Amino acid sequence: MRNNPKLSRLLGLLAAFGLGVWISLSGLIDQIASHWDDIVYLSQQHIVLVAVSGGLAILVGIPTGVWLSRPSMERVAETIMQIFNVGTTIPTLAVIALAMTVMGIGFVPAVFGLFVASLLPIVRNTYAGLLAVPPHLKEAANGMGMTPGQILFRVELPNALYVIMSGVRTALTINVGTVPLAFLIGGGGLGELIFTGIDLMDTGTLLAGAIPTAMLAVLVDFLMGQGQYYLIPRGVNPLR
Amino acid sequence: MIRLENLTKIFETANGPVVAADNVSMEVPEGEICILLGPSGCGKTTALKMINRLIPPTSGKIYIDGKDTSNQNDVQLRRSIGYVIQQIGLFPNMTIEENICVVPKLLGWDAKRARTRAAELLDLVGLDANLYLKRYPKELSGGQQQRVGVIRALAADPPVMLMDEPFGAIDPINREIIQDEFLKMQAKMKKTIMFVSHDIDEAVKMGDKVAIFRAGKIEQYDSPDHLLAHPVNAFIADFVGADRTLKRLRLVTAKQVTDADAPAVSRHGKVTDALAAMREHKAPVVVVIDADHHPVGYLTEEMAEGASGLVQELAQPLPATVPAGADLRAVVSEMFAHDIMWLVTVDDDGRFTGVVTQPAVTRALGATYRGDDVAAT
What we know:
The complex is a heterodimer of chains A (240) and B (377).
Chain A: H1 5-26, H2 28-33, H3 36-69, H4 74-89, H5 92-103, H6 107-131, H7 135-143, H8 148-178, H9 191-200, H10 203-231
Chain B: E1 2-13, E2 16-28, E3 33-37, H1 44-51, E4 59-64, E5 67-68, H2 74-79, E6 81-85, H3 96-100, H4 102-106, H5 111-124, H6 129-132, H7 142-154, E7 160-164, H8 172-189, E8 192-197, H9 200-206, E9 209-214, E10 217-222, H10 224-229, H11 234-240, H12 244-248, H13 254-257, E11 264-266, H14 271-281, E12 285-289, E13 295-300, H15 301-304, H16 311-314, E14 316-317, E15 321-323, H17 328-338, E16 342-346, E17 352-357, H18 358-370
Parallel strand pairs in B: 3-8, 3-9, 6-7, 7-8, 11-12, 15-16
Antiparallel strand pairs in B: 1-2, 1-4, 4-5, 9-10, 12-13, 13-14, 16-17
């Protein structure tokens, strides 16, 4: 079959239009709108869960990545990274369940589970980004009389910033999509609508949770992309 | 001044200790460029990096301007020494201005003074400050980056500079240009410079002194001319190359071997007078000059013999002239190109200054072997 961009765009538009017609005819929009108050309230909870767990992951992940990238850690860093890697293969649901058995139900174990899920991309990208800074830059900085702290903050971190922020971007986007699981241990968030919708076989309720979750994920990804574009110095920013 | 005293570095490796620098002692006088030269792995870079302690010495002392540096704190020491590396090492996250101002800022200069200094240095290497201060390194060509790398090391005006193959990564044409620029700057700055190179031609061109290393030891430490004329052993002779005498051509200017009394006649003079002048000076040629002393032609004894009349009727146009400041390599090259034994030299305004002959060139190069050291000056 020949790839015709005009035709496929037209088909796409037609499909979207048809979907819209079908949704409005089926009364789904009204069903979703009837949950508006819940959506607003639970979205706030959702955002708080993302902000707290993601913020903690950044606060812990970046220093951990920096620490692992120091020359004194060279021998053990790879081993520790492997432990992080293995840790990530445990499904987030299992982590949340384990957190519940130790910390009970509610906000705190939910945040902990999400924190663990977000940690790896941040640590890995910080570590890899710092290791990728060319050795001759560090040599030049060292030879010019910068202290190790100055080398880290003025040379290494700015040059690794793009890779580090990519890690944070991945972590937060995954985090937004994982937050619905928090509902299962009483952590709140848009998962409440999604899982209730599934249990009641109520598509409207399910979508009232799923669509805002998806939109939040896209929004977070977009904002992080903007952050990467504007916050990273032009000299080391591949985007501009 | 930099003085190294029994500087030794032993690396402990899995295969036992490796001696990278073995009792290196040398002194670089104030305001001179010393080239550390040798094959790779000979310890020249190790010796250089021990001076700013990027590599800590195993034993031995380093004095800068008479002061023992071992009491100084690493960071303070490095801020007082200019450092240039082959990979340039400009920080890509900083603008050119920020790059140049790194050391001034570390030393606590105020921002305005540092900025003025950055603009001044850019001017020094012919880069327009308005255009380049706010650019990032990736927006500059390789040659421009290398120039910025050098002036960054000069930013805080350190008395001593260490340069680790600073022009090694540039194409040959740009390298020549940057080397010449650097020599011009150095003529004014008079920094004391240690310079690592593996290129004998660069060493001969840039160095006041050259130290050739082998297996961590200095084999010979001498002026470039003396090194080329009198290699102390087979290794040095081999390293500087079989054409080492030809390399010495670069070290002597035409001016140093020009016969300034070479005969010259006006074009309105008589041929018989010209012939007499030639014979009196035992010169192979008489140069014909115009009223402004610009050389315009020549007469040989053969052409003038038995002829009469005015010089301008017989004179032949000059095949070539060279500036008095040109090195002998350029002079000899012109002679070979035009199949001639003599060449007229001119000053900056194109006026006649004298004649260089091939025998004068060979005499100058041979002087060092006869004991009268003309060429070395």
